[in-house]
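chain below, 71 aa
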Amino acid sequence: MSGKVNVVNQAERWASVKEVAQNLGVNRDTLYKWIKRTDIPAHKVGRLWKFKLSEVDLWARSTPESTAPDE
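prediction:
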């Protein structure tokens, strides 16, 4: 992810692992694996992982199916 700040996303709320997993239609364990193995845009806040759904959607659309991590 580049260091650019998208002005539109500044007001976007942070989403939880549960919300992102539901949004992507994957198990939470799969999402944790993706955090470790890929460049999915995730931000650690204390012990919790947080996401901007717009960033995750962009990541999912730009990740070719052939390079998507295994569940």
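The chain has one domain: 12-62. The two ends are 22 Å apart (CA to CA).
thats it, cya
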